[in-house]
Amino acid sequence: MKSRLAKFLIRGATALITLSSIALADVHLVYYVDIFGPPNPKTTPTASTTLPVGPATLAPANTSLSVLVPMFNQASDPNLGFKYQLTGVNIELDWSTLGSLKVFNITEKAVPFTKGTTSIPLTITAPSISVYANAATGPISGRAACCLAVTTFPGLTKTGAAVDNVAPVNYGLYEGNGVKTLTFGVASDAGSYGGSSPGDTLFFGGSATAGGILKVDYSYIEVKAVEAGTISLLLVMLAGFAGFAGVLKKKLA
Among 13, 205, 233, 246, whose CB has the most other CB atoms within 10 angstroms? Predict the structure, then answer.
């Protein structure tokens, strides 16, 4: 009798969970924003769009500002009795950079070099998470002209991507009911320039710009939620049946 009662309660609880959450396949809602895009210089944060944007606007080092990304709206489900529920939040920065490497030769002969780079670190600061990218060109190899001269290597370009996922425990920071907006911080740090030469006889400097397209990907499912009153009634019915079964067992004993 105990075994049958336990099985009944487990099945009842399972049915209750099934009724309160009927999930369909994952759907994606993606927002895009050119992090250093117009208006530039910025007087207000740039807003996101659901349409892909690009190419990225490039900005110099030590640029700091903010962009706006819509919060995921759980109440936007048009189907009566259903709502949307997040299953993932993916934050990606597709970065681009353009650099010019300057090589200072302090000797009286031409000197070769390797591993020449320009770089600008980019950081996206979102609720509960930061995405970091080192927007670097190269490495390149070349030859610095003599003597006591500066040789410039312009037009160095590169693209890349940095991605991170929000932990499920923090989904609540990204979802709500109604139209709301999140503010993401965007910053480029000081540029750096380097390379390698025999005997360290060369010095490296230069200039660079960087930017990127921020993509915030909300994955979600449609969930049918049973009203609180219905859930309470089902729980009362289960408890009542369990009590009745106990009384019946005593009478039969």
Answer: 205
